[in-house]
Amino acid sequence: MPFYQSNPQLTTLAEAALADTWQKFPTLEREQVALTWLVYDAPIPVNTGGAITADELWKYPVRGFNYRGNDRIYPASIAKLFYLLAMHEWLEQGMASASSELDRAVRDMIIDSSNDATSLVVDTLTGTTSGPELSAGPFESWKSQRNFVNRYYQSLGWSELDPVNVNQKTWSDGPYGRERAFVGEMRENRNMVTTDAVARLMHSIVGGAAVSGDRSSQMMQLLHRDLKLAQATPDPGEENQVNGFLGAGLPAESQIWSKAGWTSQVRHDAAYIELADKQPYLLIVFTEGAANSQNRQILPFIADRFVTAMSQMQAE
What we know:
alpha+beta; globular
């Protein structure tokens, strides 16, 4: 059963926002975008540092909408959200030892979206390391360990996570050796998630139900973005997770907690947004296609359309 309820008002508003997007960007095909939108009507307590228990959070009704929300899509650096939460779970359970170096890696993985930092985090989570190809027996053991994070998420019993695969590192140039063998000849074992799965993960963090209230707050601190970055003229070769993403389409007085992902083929963002005078909401948007991944206007435009939708909505 979905953790949010489909809502006619949200459906009407979201479909209008998508229609505006396709009109503005005709090269964005219908099957090249996926989206999940959740609205937090009062009195649901989110972004409070875990003011309520996890059991209480999941009892609150949440209105939502998705477009292709259950379709599996390559997440790029959105996968780092799954590694962030898992790392906090491991630390909480004593399955990993805290250190200044691990703290630095987790921070750089989320704030700077560092692939090198992510490599250390994945190694720590799974007890594996990259390197040359392995013989059959050791490789089977290595693959079993690398699926440790997948098994953790399946153990949560969240139906939205059923299609998820998060057993690969993120790369700048690509995998080599045992990593290349593991991803598969046709990359059939690459990371894959859905916008609904990301929404549930973000919902648990924002609601203070991810591992613990304190750890959820720590995650939120790393996810907070400075919207002043949207006003800077960006270097085309650099990304700051605001320019070219949802944050760039928000009013200056807004607040956003987000994780972006991009490659030559995808441009994604997952954000919890607080506008100055509206209900807070989650907006998860994935776009695919080489031309779309290079277009830095699509996600800000979608963000702007949903700001308009929020202004047209009545609380329930």
